[in-house]
Amino acid sequence: MHPERLAEGLCTNCGRSFCAECLTDVDGFPYCPACVDDARERAVSEPPDEVYEEEPPPKRRHRIRDTLVGLFLTGLILVMTFCFSYKNGIVTRIFSQPYLLLSLPKMTENEPGQFRKKETAHFIIYHRNDDLAEWLAKTSEEDLKKIAKDAGADIPQLMKRGKYTIKIAKNPEEYRSLALSTPSTTSEGTTNRETRTVIVNQMKTSYLLHLVLAHEISHLVYSDILNGAYDVPLWVIEGFASYEQAEVDDITIISQRELVRSNLEKDTLIPLAGMTAYPVSEDERDLFYAQSTSVTTFLIDSYGIRKFMAFSKQLESGFDTDSAIKTIYAPDLKNLTALEKKWLASIK
Fold it and tell me: Which of 68, 75, 255, 323 is 20 to 30 A distant from 339 in Cα terms?
């Protein structure tokens, strides 16, 4: 561009020689005017190449925000679980009886030696552990009071034949030897109606022991009210005991409800007319208890426990099931078939 001047450098791009005035320094390298203009035009017309940079770490306030969101969602889940549990009675049981969550080794360790006897107002308790006996004394009296009230029974009247007996076996072998009948392999408690005795296998927690205790004491009360209840269908007897057990443990009732619904969908429920004896297999026995609980709960929730007890007394008096249902529950229910139909409709 200035031929009269001496060349002082070469253009980095095109390689031609130029004087110092014509060269432009770009990032430490000399470029001629033409190459500089060409580069400027390309920069305007062409988008720049993408540059990938490492994402910076989240700012502190973002981490705090994410933590708060996580805590909120966790809290929301806990609240929803609490509401569901409260609706089904689980929370009420746990907060009113906090020992349900506890394992108490001191209570479940059998001390050596023979049975020791502890008496309460209405029970004679045979045990090998003083701490366990103290707990049993309090719990059994509270359960008896609740069950008798539900059944409309007068406790002094129940005690005319003497106090109830509770025996705590130290292991499954002793439990089976104390039980006059042969309990199932999964049985943890049994009741002898003749001797008015509850026999319970030693368990790991007071929670499990209380479940069995409430169930078996219910059998004692029901049997005394009905002079043995020998003519009452088995599903009615077990249904009442399981209904009272639900006052201790609603969780079991929820699982039984799901078992009944599952078998209803598969059309494998046991007909009520056939529920007069314990099934042989353990799976069928679980379903038997679940159905007994479900039908009894339906009757009590729909028509009241007083009518249920009146229905039971009709059965004990010699009425067949259809006649007893018609006498107590007509015109809504006229026989066992009508009861079964209405019960099934309530669980669908």
Answer: 255
Tokens 């529950």 map to which residue?
329
Gap between the Cα atoms of 151 and 240, Å rounded? 9
Q: 18 forms bridges with which residues in the sheet?
A: 9
- CA distance to 229, 261, 269, 289, per residue, from 266 (Å): 33, 9, 8, 18
Enumerate residues 6+ apart whose C-beta is below 8 A from 248.
93, 97, 100, 143, 210, 211, 214
Query: In angstroms, rounded to a whole number, what is the distance separating the alpha carbons of residues 68 and 46?
Result: 45
Peptide bond between residue 30 and the one before it cis (omega within 30 degrees of 0): no
pTM of the shown model: 0.69
Cα distance between residue 15 and residue 11, in whole Å: 5
Could you give the CA distance from residue 79 to residue 49 in angstroms, rounded to a whole number?
52
Identify the burial level of 269 via C-beta atoms within 10 angstroms of its C-beta, where 0-12 means exposed, 13-18 middle and 19 or more buried: buried
Rounded CA-CA distance 318/231 in Å is 7
Query: In 147-239, at which residue ranges do the beta strands (DSSP E only) sit?
Result: 164-169, 189-192, 197-201
| Distance from the first to the final alpha carbon of the chain | 97
The size of the chain, in residues, is 348
Alpha-carbon gap, residue 331 to 309, rounded angstroms: 18
**How many beta carbons lie within 10 A of that of residue 147, not counting itself?**
25
**Can you state the angle between helices 321-329 and 336-347, rounded to 10 degrees?**
70
pLDDT tens, position by position, 81-124: 555 544 444 444 444 444 444 444 455 566 667 899 999 999 99
CATH class of 102-225: alpha beta
